[in-house]
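Q: Could you write out the predicted structure for this multi-component system? I'm mainly interested in how the pieces pack against one another.
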Amino acid sequence: MKELRESRSHKRTARPRAPTNVLREGLRLERVPDPSIFVLFGSTGDLAHRKVLPAMYQLWRTNLLPHEFILLAIGRRDLDDVSYRADVRVSLEQHSRVLPLDEAAWSTFSERIRYQRLDFADAAGFDVLATRLDEIDEDCGTRGNRIYYLATQPGQFAEIVAQLGRVGLDHERHDGGWRRIVIEKPFGHDLDSAKRLNREVAKVFRESQVYRIDHYLGKETVRNLLVFRFGNGIFEPLWNRRYVDHVQITVAESIGIENRGAFYEATGASRDVLQNHLLQLVSLVAMEPPATFDADALRDEKVKVLRAIGTTPADPERQVVRGQYGPGWVAGTAVPGYRQEPDVDPGSETETFVAARLVIDDWRWAGVPFYVRTGKRMPKRATEIAIRFREVPHRLFRDAGADPDPNLLAIRIQPDEGIMLRFGAKVPGLGLDVRSVTMDFTYGSAFSVDSPDAYETLILDALQGDASLFTRADEVEEAWGIVDPIIDAWAADDPAAFPDYDAGTWGPPDADQLLVREGRRWRRI
Amino acid sequence: MATDLRPGPSVSEPVLRWSARVHSIAEIEAQLARIWAKQDLTAEVEGEPGRYIAARTSVMNLVVIASRPEIGERAATTVQALTGRHPSRTIVVQSADPDGPSWIDARIEAHCVLPRADAPETCAETIYLAAGGEAGRHLAAIVTPLIIHDLPVTVWWPGEPSFRSPAARDLLAGADRLVVDGSSWSGDGLARLRAMASLHDATGLAIRDFALVRQSRWREAIASVFDDPDFLPYLRSIRRIAVTYASHDETGAPGSTNLVKPVYHVAWIASRLGLAVHRPLTPVGTPTASKAKVHHPAPGRQVVGRGLHATLSDGRGDVGVVVRPLISPMPGGTTLRVELLAERRGSELRADVTAEAESVHVRVWQDGVEALDRPFLAARRTDLELLGEILESGLRDPVADGTLRSAAALVGEDHA
């Protein structure tokens, strides 16, 4: 039967292979993106200028984009190609990760930038856009391949998608012209809105055309997590409840809300970081090995983790801690409390810190708590995953001076991307003192090649049609399914006694209690 | 005698922290142990005790075979600049005065570097080892005891490696990787290239040639021609490959200019496309394939000014190859131009790739009409960058191995 299944399977999948450029074997990219138009909605906004455009320039400068490539910037402001290019130049001079700008690269890159004024509510404007895209295809050899990048306010996503669908800009052509859409986070405000948005997007685009971007997944160390787990023989056998005591994941920011009071008031730490970055990191740490390294196999396994995370609506006060910073000192500077920030309600209930104890109800992780925390105005900027292993079953060296701490594997995502392993070693001398030592791997000092920015990685992946590092609709909904009950429970609760932690500290005391009552403590970062 | 410690280093700038001179293997081993056993390794910074020196760090053994002291010094300087990223025990060996009495002279140094301002120092040893007489004829016996076991061994052989000598055989027997620079070899370099390919075939030793690694910007540019879906079908229909290289020899005599780099271009394309060598490189003007077997002139003996030609085959037809000199102020053997001609169903695609210091330029014509004109910004890389890339790459590189094998086939038996 098995042979028969395999034989049928082979017949189904045996298709003539498309010719490949064998000269690319062993080069930086074994496949370069197809000729295409990168249609950037929200092109005059902060995200576009700080992240997307510098990433595009860097990809162009390093010859990773095709020759037939056009960046069509869409915005409401009254600009033209020339004036928009001038704006791009100014922002690149501020935000490009390689400065000074390479004049030759800028010259050829800027020639590929076009600007189209468009009000997203203006249906006729989208007809004009469709015509312009066809003209660019005709003039520049971009072959009908288009990627729509939504770097706009989240409230405009559905409207833009609907308009694109109305004028047929989603239709992929039989002769190979593909259409893809990249949607920035936040994807929805809660589970209902995420489902609604997914439905609106699905009316126009197939799921395989949709790339929901979470820039954390493009970071080098996050990608390396997969290599670390599944490319090494020695760690995976230990990666389970038998050997792991608990996992801590910290996403700490030293900055406040940076003049985004209105946005943050409606968002808070749970929606801003827990629902996406933190749960993505949890799923990458906890997932089973995928059968293959393709996008859906990878995302299938991540979704299984999210489904297995036990929600805690019945007991959120014991499993989840929220907090809000008051005035304090960060990096030697006095900073205001959250309620004193511009555009923030002086009586705001919005959380700027959240910590949670998550449990993953599956065979591998049953009984292993995953402690996650994120906050604004922490003492330092640091993102880290720490795997704390169990103590040895029999402590031979308990009397030998300080007993060594249990083994710990820390994966630093930012800053100083790298991996640290802690183990016990004998102190030199006649006695038998034992202490903990570390082996430390730092990306910056081990490789001479600079890591690409996360946006460069993800934009290149989207242009190549690789969705592995993008979030699928069901992932988004499962993540909201975890966060929604927490937010609902808070809403039903009494007003929080905010502020409850000083800026420049590691969050409210209750966050420590989350671990202390189980005989653990947060790792000092 | 050992020197005292010096003040702490600046970021990324290697500083000599220890130096000793000895004359036997036992003394070398004793000195190596002493460097790191010394208890007080605090450096003085502005007169005050400063940073604690981290323990010795090594991720590999690097053996540099130097024919002359200055080659060894130059190579060691490059290696020390990489200490922050690739700390290695470096052993620079030089054989001298083979007919005299047996002697060993070794200088042991410890260099430290701060990879970052907030990082601990990374220190590594360099052993400059000269041996004469019988000892100089058995360098492997001197080097082997100094290798840190369980760490990979890379042999860097700048200058003119003698792949077939017993000494080389012994030295390379314990190596995991050999690094050479074929573009620096004397003459046309082709006999040595073939010998290197034989060594690879016989031992499986991973071989990396600066000359080939340096060409990656060319390969990116040439490959980019066929990224265009319209041009990709022509890739399997290439009918002619021409490589123009710089020469300073007005006569264009074979053997007067190093040809390793031009040959690598052809070999890379041939290996990627699976092209077999139907007729190896011979001077232009020699008879065709069948006659060549009878009248083949010895390379290097005949003065022919129009370069070399060869014939490859893809099973469906022949692919003509021309490697031709052009008088140029560029260093001899530098690739000036790579041209490809492909013919498919009555249509013709011509690609022309040229390079300058900071860029490579690609032009493509389809049936005589210009279809692509693209500059690639890609600067020439230094030896330091090339060595860093080689050390960071894995031992297995099918593209490099395939290129070397094709290059040997192109060179042919005459260069054996």
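A: Regarding packing and overall arrangement: The domain at 216-381 of chain B is CATH 3.30.360 (Dihydrodipicolinate Reductase; domain 2).
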